[in-house]
Amino acid sequence: MSMMTPSRRALLAAAFAPASPLAADPDRPQYHFLPPANWMNDPNAPIFHANQYHLYYQHNPKAAKWDTMHWGHAVSPDLLHWQHRPIALAPTPGGPDKDGCFTGCMVVDRGTPTIVYTGVNPQVQCVATSADLETWTKNPRNPVLAGPPPGVDSPGFRDPHVWRDGDSWLMLVGAGFRNKGGTALLYESKNLIDWTYLYPLLTGAIDPKAKGGDVARGEMWECPDFFPVGNQWLLHISTENKVRYWLGSWKNRQFTPRTQGTLVHGAGYAPKSSNASGNRRIIWAWLREQRSQEAQLKAGWSGVMSLAAVPSLAKDGTLLLDPAVEYQRLRGRRQTEAPPSDCCEIQLSLSGKEPFSLSRGGHELLGFDPDSRTLSAGRSEAPLPPGPVDLRIFLDGSVIEIFANRRTWLTGRVYGPAAGISMSGKASHLEAWPLEPVSKDRLTS
C-alpha cells in the first residue's frame, strides 16, 4: 500500500519547500505545467474524472536528473490552474517496483480508479487501485505480468496502455523483437489482473544507420497509445528519438494503418492521451530539456509538460492537431505586432516563399526556410509541405510550441534572459496576445 510514511513526508516537504531561485528563473515557464522542482519526464495516466483533471507524471523528487522514478500528481478544474498533490506512487522496497514506478495508464473499473504501470529490474506490469485518486493500494498479486510472452525475445517490456473493448479489457505493452524492430504487444483480460497474450498490434523495423541503444535503433517501442479519432483509430509510439503515429481502421481486433507521420517534432516525447471535458481526447507530451545536465542541476528543475493538444480529422481523413481551447482564457489584449513579453501566443500567416524568424535577445526562437521548407524552434526542426504557412506559436520562458497549418506540432527549447521579441521577414497576418501567468512564482500552482 502506498502510505504517507515519514520518508514520503520528507520527500513531499522537500518538493514543496520555498524555491525563490525557481521563481526568478526566466527559463522556467509560467503557464505550462511542471512540478514544484526537480525532474519530470513522461505523462502518466492522465484522466478527467468527477469534473477534475488528474495529471500524473514520472518524477524524481530528489534532484533535477533522471533517477528512481516516482509518480508525481496534480489536479486542475480547467487545464490551466494546477494544485500539486502528494506523490501518488513510490517504489516499494523488495517489491516488483523496487527500482522505480515507470510509465502506465489509468482506467475506471466499475467505479474504481485503477492504474496499470511498469515496475523495473526486471520490467513487469503492476496494478494499483484507489478510492480518491491520491492514496493507492498496490495489488498483492503484482506483478500481474512478469515478462514478455514465451518465445518473444524483447529488449524491453514497459509502458502499458489499457482500454475497454466490449466486455473485456485490452492492453498494449511497448516491446520489440530483438534484431528486428519495435512492437506493441496486445493482451486481453476480464479483470485487469489475469492477462492473455494475443499478438503484436503492429511491428516496425530497425534503422540500420542509427547509433545508440535499442530505442535509438527502433528495436524497442516505448509508450504506445491507441484510441479513436473520428471514424479512425490513432496509434502512436515513441522510438528513435521520435514520436511516430499511424491512422487506420480497428475491426475484429485488427489494426490496419492507412496513413502515418510524426505526431510531435523536436523536444516532445512519450505522449499520453486522456479523455477530456466536451467529449474530447487530448494528448500531453513531455518536453525534454535541450541543455546540459549540469545546467539542469544548477537550475533545480528539468522537464515541462506540453500544452494539451486535441486531435481531429480533416475532410480528407488526415490528422489535425490543435491546442486545447482553454488556453484562450489566458489571453490579454489583442495586438497586431510582436509582443514585448515571451509569455504569449502569436498567430502568423506567411506566404511560404520568403524566410522569416522570431528572436528574443539575439537568440532565434523560430525560423522558416522557404528553400528547404523547414520550420525550426531552437534546435528542433520539422518539414512543411509546399504552400502558405499558418502558425500558432506559444512562447513561455524556454518553451516554444508551434502548430503549423494544424498539421505539424513542433516543440523546442531556447534558453536565455527575458527580452523583447523581434521579427525578421514579412507576415501577411499577425495577431498576438500576452498570456496571463497561472501563478506569480513560476510554480504553476
Account of the protein in words:
- It is built from four helices and 32 strands.
- A hairpin with a 2-residue loop joins strand 13 (222-229) and strand 14.
- Helix content is 6%, strand content 50%.
- It has two domains: 37-323, Glycosyl hydrolase domain, family 43 (Tachylectin-2, Chain A, 5 Propeller), CATH 2.115.10.20; 332-434, Exo-inulinase, domain 1 (Jelly Rolls, Sandwich).
- The two termini are 28 Å apart.
- A nine-stranded mixed sheet has the order 13-14-15-16-30-29-28-23-32. A five-stranded mixed sheet has the order 4-3-2-1-19. A five-stranded antiparallel sheet has the order 27-26-25-24-31, with no helix packed on it.
- It has helices at residues 6-15, 20-23, 214-217, 293-299; strands at residues 38-49, 52-60, 70-76, 83-89, 101-109, 112-119, 124-129, 137-138, 158-165, 168-177, 181-189, 195-203, 222-229, 232-239, 242-251, 254-266, 268-276, 280-287, 301-302, 304-305, 309-313, 319-323, 343-350, 356-360, 363-369, 374-377, 380-383, 389-396, 399-404, 408-413, 421-424, 429-434.
- The chain has 445 residues and is mainly beta.
- Residues 12-19 have low confidence and may be disordered.
